[in-house]
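User: For my dataset I need records formatted as: sequence, then structure tokens, nothing else. Please produce one.
Assistant:
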Amino acid sequence: MLPIPAEKFQADLKFDTIVCWNTIDHAVGWRDILLNIALYSKPTTRIGISTDFHEPYDGHPGFEKKEFMAEITRLFVIIECKEPFGRDIALLLKIK
């Protein structure tokens, strides 16, 4: 089986735990990835996401914290937030 990009939705997947640590800031389709994480979540799923906020450079398309947090709060409930915590921000989330 070939690797499938996180931006591409995979039907019929549900997880108890989802961890996205220092990866989403390397993706152009970060909004799609967050949506897919929400779609893969059950009401009891624990979600851990961490990221950095940089200006775009090689391997880091970049996004602003304000945009990122708007998507996070649209899709998820923040259980815990640490700034910094190995990355610029680390979040423990659950689906709305």
